[in-house]
Design goal:
The protein has 426 residues and is an alpha/beta fold. The chain is built from 15 helices and 17 strands.
């Protein structure tokens, strides 16, 4: 990072612009650099740490964990990646976003301590979150892995309980091009002699083998814990807990029961250090919120926001859409970064979309709408329209909507963020 960093009194926007300009989106996997800086700063948390890895469902799992722990009276630090509308969303204490001043202070402390160590944007972000949590006096922290697990910056801290959600093909250029290879990277967050949760109903053998090799206390959904869905409620059994009459999660979608079951299992394994009563679990289920995860906006026509940016996530989106009674036409505003499998993601929606509004995205990993449309034309069922930006597509399609139609805005976080910001009046 040769350029001079902003001073401690600079605005958060100046720090973020500096970090982006230094790395230009670079991903440098490995723990040595960030570990040396963390140790130099004394970032050794004495409170329990939950680490959440996986391909899809990480953000929802972190939100559910945070909601249940807060309902139990704990002061909880939540670290998310990435954000939708503003950077502060990534770092939260008791559900409240860190202030600009808090984040600037954290970045300045890291810059003062790192010496000649090169740190990526994400490594700065991860260290800043832990620095803030330690100074805020949290009782526990819930950390979302950014990419992979084994070599991700979050893994510099030993998880007291590690959760791996579902495993699919994503970031294959870094993690491998099979579920087995990717699962081995995700399982790198497990620790010997500590609780390890797997929420994937079909865990690759590599995950099971690694957990056994290091002696992790692995609990798998369907084998060691399970859930049963009733008409308007559900039950859970496993990890020393048996709960019935649970309310449906406030996060919409059938897959959220699977995520919630993994969270309850994780809490069950930690009940001696962080006891959470059944009432707090119920309260957390009812009060949890997370933007962009099958988020249904109020009013008509129905508008759904979902950050499904790979084939597995798109298949979950398709399942949730099929659960909605059909009416009118369904429009999709879709764009995805250039390193994602756009064709497979679109194909997962099958015949559910009547009109595709394929848009461009800016930035080094973005692409033109026309190029993306050409890539998905062979698999998209329904008419294809193009627009330079997600907001441009949003304004064009609104002129053709009836109250009975549905709009699904999905793909990259950037796609969803642009439309959500427009809907909220920026």
């Amino acid at each position: 990072m040769p350029a001079r960093a902003p001073g401690a009194g600079a605005a958060l926007a100046d720090w973020l612009a500096w970090l982006e300009s230094q790395q230009r989106g670079a991903i440098l996997l490995g723990l040595d650099r960030v570990r040396r800086v963390a140790e130099g700063m004394g970032l050794r948390p004495s409170f329990p740490v939950f680490t959440v890895a996986g391909t899809n469902g990480k953000g929802s799992t972190c939100a559910l964990l945070g909601a249940m722990l807060r309902a139990a009276g704990y002061r909880v630090g939540n670290y998310y990646s990435p954000h939708l509308l503003r950077y502060n969303e990534r770092v939260r204490v008791d559900g409240e976003e860190a202030s600009d001043a808090d984040l600037v202070a954290a970045f300045a402390a890291i810059e003062a301590a790192r010496g000649d160590e090169q740190l990526t944007y994400f490594e700065f972000a991860t260290l800043a979150a832990m620095w803030h949590f330690m100074r805020a006096g949290v009782d526990c922290a819930v950390l979302e892995v950014g990419l992979g697990g084994r070599l991700d910056a979050v893994n510099v801290w030993d998880a007291d309980c590690a959760v791996v959600t579902t495993i699919g093909l994503d970031h294959t250029e870094y993690l491998g091009d099979t579920r087995e290879a990717i699962a081995r990277e995700k399982a790198g967050v497990y620790r010997g002699g500590r609780p390890a949760i797997c929420v994937d109903p079909d865990p690759p053998a590599t995950l099971l083998a690694h957990a056994a090799e290091i002696g992790a206390g692995l609990l798998c959904i369907g084998r060691d814990f399970r859930y049963v869905r009733q008409e308007r409620q559900w039950s859970f059994e496993g990890a020393g807990l048996r709960l019935s009459g649970l309310p449906m999660p406030a996060l919409v979608g059938e897959h959220q029961l699977q995520n919630a079951a993994g969270v309850i299992a994780a809490l069950g394994t930690m009940r001696e250090r962080l006891p959470v009563a059944a009432g707090a679990i119920r309260e957390g289920l009812m009060n949890v919120s997370l933007a962009g995860r099958f988020q249904v906006l109020p009013g008509r026509p129905m508008v759904i926001l979902d950050v499904a940016h790979n084939a597995h996530a798109a298949s979950i989106l398709a399942r949730n859409l099929r659960a909605i009674p059909p009416s009118g036409r369904t429009h999709a505003v879709f764009s995805i970064l250039s390193d994602k499998d756009a064709a497979a993601t679109v194909a997962a929606l099958g015949d559910l979309i009547d009109v595709w509004w394929v848009t461009g995205l800016a930035g080094p990993r973005g692409r033109r709408a026309e190029d993306l449309a050409a890539e998905v034309a062979g698999v998209a069922q329904g008419r294809i329209e193009t627009a330079p930006t997600p907001v441009g597509a949003w304004h064009r399609l609104r002129e053709a909507l009836s109250d009975d139609d549905k709009v699904v805005v999905f793909g990259s976080f950037l796609t969803v963020a642009e439309v959500l910001a427009e809907v909220r009046g920026r």
